[in-house]
Design a protein that fits this description.
222 residues
Length: 222
């Protein structure tokens, strides 16, 4: 009887721990290119007051920055007067003074954004010295230098590990996707429901499907 009880306890523990273990075993996404898109294509760069300009552009995965072509040169864009960029059906919005976030989902005036970058810490662990290469290319320098520097045996063999960081644009204000930042934007009538959601073990701040559920809780009236 004690043996049976022990087996049942072990089985129950395995069932309860399995979801957490499964969530941790997420395969690392990798790319052999330092750019988000296979090639530079014509994109519409969106500026304030309804203005826009078309350039051949791409997103550099070093820091998720906007790059464009001038002749044969690849340059990082100065984005002080940039709101976003449209690549066909893929839309990016500026999340800070440098980075661009891909629009994952939208409801009314609110957006879920994803900033994808090369995981420098993992590169450093996997290939000694690569972190230095990633850091050597300073602001305002030719993005082409970075692309050339990263064409290493490491990148060709393994591909660069990628990491995602999520943000929300709520009524035009960019905030990181975490409980502290999001809580002030929860509708008063949804605060109790939001608290219950935060206690849901199946819900995750790192899962875009989970994050899109937050649109229901967020203020969406101007």
């Amino acid at each position: 009887m004690k043996t049976l009880r022990s087996l049942l306890i072990l089985w129950l523990a395995a069932v309860l721990l399995w979801p957490a273990a499964a969530q941790q075993q997420v395969e690392t996404r990798r790319t052999k290119s330092v750019f988000a898109n296979p090639e530079f294509t014509e994109a519409k760069v969106i500026q304030p007051f309804g203005r826009s300009v078309k350039v051949k552009a791409n997103i550099l995965l070093k820091n998720s920055t906007l790059c464009f072509m001038r002749g044969d040169s690849i340059l990082e864009a100065y984005v002080a007067n940039v709101l976003g960029v449209q690549f066909d059906s893929i839309h990016y919005m500026k999340v800070n003074d440098k980075q661009m976030g891909r629009v994952v989902a939208q409801k009314a005036y609110n957006y879920l954004l994803c900033v994808t970058t090369i995981n420098r810490a993992q590169v450093a662990r996997e290939c000694a010295g690569s972190e230095n290469v990633l850091s050597d290319i300073g602001d305002g320098q030719l993005a082409a230098r970075f692309a050339e520097a990263m064409s290493t045996d490491y990148s060709m063999k393994n591909g660069f590990p990628l990491q995602d960081k999520y943000y929300f644009s709520i009524m035009g204000q960019i905030v990181p996707a975490n409980e502290t930042a999001i809580k002030p934007f929860v509708k008063p009538e949804m605060k109790s429901a939001f608290k219950r959601l935060m206690n849901d073990k199946w819900w995750s701040w790192k899962d875009p499907a989970s994050l899109t559920q937050l649109f229901t809780y967020l203020t969406d009236q101007r």
